[in-house]
Model the fold of this input.
Amino acid sequence: MKLPWYNVCGQQNIGGNDVRLNNYSKGNKKYKHITLQERDMIERWYNKEGKSKREIAKLLNKSDRTIRREINRGLVIVRGYEWEEIEEYSAYKAQEAADYNKTSKGPALKLDQDKKLVKRIEKEILVNKKSPEAIVAEIKDGEYKVKVCARTIRNAIKIETVFDITSKDMIYNKSYKNKNKEKRVSVKIPPEKSIEFRPNEANDRSIYGHWEGDLLIGKRKRGAVLLTLTERRTRQEIIVKLKNKTNEEVVKAFNGLERKYKRRFNNIFKTITFDNGSEFLGYEAIEKSCLRKGNRTSIYYAHPYCAGERGTNENANRMIRRWVPKGTDISLLSKEFIQGVEDWLNNYPRAMFGYKSSNMILLEQ
Done:
């Protein structure tokens, strides 16, 4: 997937006259602050000609967000012909605010010295969905003019003056809270299936083959869902699309995985830990092999309302949300897309492994 980065303004027809605007692409301009001349143009286009913020952004070759912030900064209340209050943009007020803000400006940011690095970071975050830590780990010494750390990148994103991205574009956005989150009613399970009885080798991550699982919901209460399985030691991820959120569909998914891995299934899936959702409570059917007599795996359950006991899978789900946001109609996602998300996660460089990926760790087994 490619993003439309920064277009170069050509010849525009404004008010019947052909006007050639300046080239405001990041590669050519030294600074990206809006000038007083541009503010006068914004005032005319926005107040008199009624152009939208998006149209003005295209004319000046700025991002939509830059123009939205600029117009909000310069809004004033004026009286119309019938003495009604009208909200208009004032170039003078916006310039005055910009000049005042400059008085509190600190030292120049390191990232402002290397636009090539800024572009690379934007692409890695927006297109490749990587964290600042992963980006820094991949940058080679001497590749760019300046050397930055992950904290520098995160601080620059917070102030929203260096990058055309915000904290909402990051993998982890802690500002989001789902007020309409569905409350689950805990159901009693046999004591021996509690996470307290899970083998020590699963708890200390010393042996491969112990997994955590959950369902990733698209449109709440209806439609297709994703079954996500995360291996505790290597963080290997498996994603399976289900028609709906039922125990029967979960069992079908594991039957399909057993037919895929055959005799290797028992060694790959030694244990699986779920939450107390009703879709996982039929543990007998999930454990029972569809190819032979006996069980194929052992199921355990975390304590009610203790998502931290399945933190490995919860973390993986947050990363998958970068590609499958809440409210997505999962039924429309193709097998190729889901496989692509799974491959992306298994090839993602992780700080805990010295920025090796799960696939690289698996090769070392």
